[in-house]
Amino acid sequence: MDKYIVKSKYLWNGIDDKVSIDRAILIENGKIASIDTLDKIKAENPSAKVIAGKDYLVLPAFIDAHDHGRGVSPVAFGAFDRALELWLQDLNKLPCIPHYDACYYDGIRLVSSGVATVLHSHNPNSFSNIRQEMVDSAHGYKDAGIRSILCPLYLDQNKRIYYNRDQFLTELPDSIREPFAKGIKDKIMTMDEYLRLVEGIVSDLKDEIAKGWCEVQLHPNGGQWCSDEALLEMKSYALEHNMNIHLHLLETKYQKEYAMRTWGKNFIKHYNDIGFLGPWVSFAHSVYMDDEDLALVKQSGAVLVNNPSSNLRLRSGSFRINKVHELGINAGIGLDGCAYDDDQDYLREIRTAWLNNTVTGVNGGVDYMKVLRMATSMGAKIERRKLSEGIIDVGANADLTLIDANKLYKPYADSYIDPLALLVQKATRDYVEMTIVNGNISWSKDNEHFAKEEEAETLLRSSIIAWRSQHSERRDNELLISYVKDFYKDVE
What we know:
492 residues; six-stranded mixed sheet; four-stranded mixed sheet; 20 helices; 20 strands; 39% helix; 17% strand
């Protein structure tokens, strides 16, 4: 539909501290053209179709600010939740799922949870084919009806063990030392090769980028995995080409330990010293930051991303959400492929972010409105092309989530209770009635969209079964993992 009207009972624009009542939104050519009463907009646009089947709470569609597009949880292949440094050793159990299939399925689950945009941190099946994999990922998301921020990874050091790797190797028994060492290749490509890769991806996706369906960012995989030289080359390139940079940072205490051993200071202080810190960069996880680190983040304009379920499942710790809000730091929320029930339920992730923080007792409360802004207008700060602004305003891209407001008040809630408070407290993906992305109805509770999800699931499962038929071996990493555990266990 080129032009239509969405009627709300409650409307939250992503900016104000409360909802508006009985407002309507005119959507035209993918943009929000007007916000007013239904009668006034209908009088000026008599031929426009009206979407008003239920009492809707309408709010900006959500932004999943860090994810991986795996399609299926690593748990399904025996890589069970445990500390990140142990869990990473188990990821060789995962099948090589075609990235289109995985991202198409993940995209449908995300958009059915009210998400319009996902930042995709890419885990390649093959580094030699990463360009095509990125294109396939973008197409999978787009066919699911969701925007994507594509992050092809780069690393050039410390693969598998962060520090003292040679010492670690000497402690391994012969049976596992050789295969472990053989799997270490720190520098997959040079920085020139990486930047040419990025340019190739941008070229291949120029039409999708022009139409606002995707963006490409530079992606040093993580602080301990990327040299300062690589980071500063990426910064120069990013500033020259109006791009952003996204990386994992300070997810675990062992990563902080790496920084302290290397520079005698934490990553953020070091990045500030070398000039890498700035509004062009966003950091996923960001658990192990002290007050000085966070003050530098605020000063620099860098963006943080909270991954609450992942941080809990992988025993990483809790994001300092109270201090982040106190300082006014822009921060988003990302599922990281580790939602509690492996279902990509973004509404439950909002609730997890709201409840899980480092402060306890009477000072431990978190403002639910600020968490909603993390999911929308603040989360939008991870990219600069304004794919999803995270707001509902005239001229903004039409990215909307429609919630069944009546469900929020069942079985009973006093009518004066803020529907946004109820949304954060109790809503799940089942409360989402419709998701509009780029002006298109990407998800609604109808037979067509449910059939699309079943189709995507069937495609994904068939791809995995076909791969498994050719790769039936089972990997047992427990002996190696026991040595990794012993290696890191003294860090407290």
